[in-house]
Amino acid sequence: QVSHALKSLARKEEWKHRLQQSEELHDILLKAANRYVAGEKRSDGLAIARKLQAKGYGISLENIGENTKLLAQCREAKMEFDQLIEDVGAIAPGQTVSFDLSHIGLSYQFDTAYGHLIELAEKANEHEVTLMISMEESTKTDQILAVYRQAAELYSNIGITLQAHLFRTPDDLRKLVQLPGKIRIVKGAYQEPSHLAMERSDYLNNRYLELVDHLVSTNHPVSVATHDQKLLEEMERRQFLQSTDVEIEMLYGIQPSQLKLFKEKGYQTRVYLTYGHEWFLYLCHRLAEYPENIYTALIDIINP
Ligand code: FAD
């Protein structure tokens, strides 16, 4: 219930308005967000990305946003990603830019999202950057996969995220391994109806392992995007992490010491880092998926 409340709170326009109106409220909540978000500007994201890259981590950078409804805003978002691709490419080759398709056009029109994705893929190719498409609510899964499939047939530098908690995912995976793009496996962040998705459980963890096993055994590039220590240890025991096709990817600010340990063991590691004006939405997502973070947020506000 707490998770649900936080997720719907994040989307309320009223909150955006309040944050714009009150500098004090904006600054207080930003202190809590700073643990997970680089800042409001692209330069904030790039500054932290450079430091992480110098320490040996791969980077996934995202300008936070979703459900853009107006064409002009979809174009604006796409132009921001154009610039981000250039800047991320300048840090080092092999970095990643991540985004929601609904940020660049899917909530407006299928063709807008597809057209923007193709333009971004072209630019990313020039700058040796990989694009990773995030996975959103199950109501959008078919459309996201349709846009991805069409684009990934033309560009091998586009990857896709799949949610292990959805019952449909093993079928989706079987079809998607035909395409060259990297597949990021996550447990799933959205509250879904029980006939579509399973809860956090051993059953879900086993499903996660089966999906990764399938990818590793077909030598497909995969990002294991989880903070679950037990699950990561099991992947290490099964020799998944040792594969050169596998990288471990975690969200900035969540259990960084754990990712550091994996990096020190010699595994490929990547930090998913975000920036942007929609940081409140992102903060609510992080609190919702792990409500204990509410206490951490309070401490960050009192003692930043
Ligand atoms: P859980 O079982 O949820 O957590 C395991 C343990 O990890 C917890 O016990 C806790 O110790 C720690 N932990 C987990 N979350 C937090 C947190 N917020 N704060 C502090 N500790 C925490 N989801 C999507 O639906 N679509 C996407 O496109 C998507 N992209 C992602 C990309 C990356 C790189 C990552 C890492 C996650 C992404 N997610 C996405 C979120 C994902 O679905 C999960 O909601 C999130 O990773 C938490 O699940 P978990 O695998 O860490 O396991």
From TrEMBL:
Alphabetical list of InterPro entries matching this protein: FAD-linked_oxidoreductase-like, PRODH_bac_arc, Proline_DH_dom, Proline_oxidase
Residues covered by the Proline dehydrogenase domain: 49-289
Entry's EC annotation: 1.5.5.2
Domain of life: Bacteria
One MF annotation (Gene Ontology) recorded for this entry: proline dehydrogenase activity
Annotated Pfam families: Pro_dh
CC cofactor: FAD
Cofactor binding annotation: Binds 1 FAD per subunit.
Binding locations of FAD: M135, Q163, K187, G188, A189, T226, H227
Reaction equations catalysed: L-proline + a quinone = (S)-1-pyrroline-5-carboxylate + a quinol + H(+)
Keyword terms, alphabetized: FAD, Flavoprotein, Nucleotide-binding, Oxidoreductase, Proline metabolism
Keyword Chloroplast recorded: no
GO biological process: L-proline catabolic process to L-glutamate
This protein's pathway: Amino-acid degradation; L-proline degradation into L-glutamate; L-glutamate from L-proline: step 1/2
Protein name, per record: proline dehydrogenase
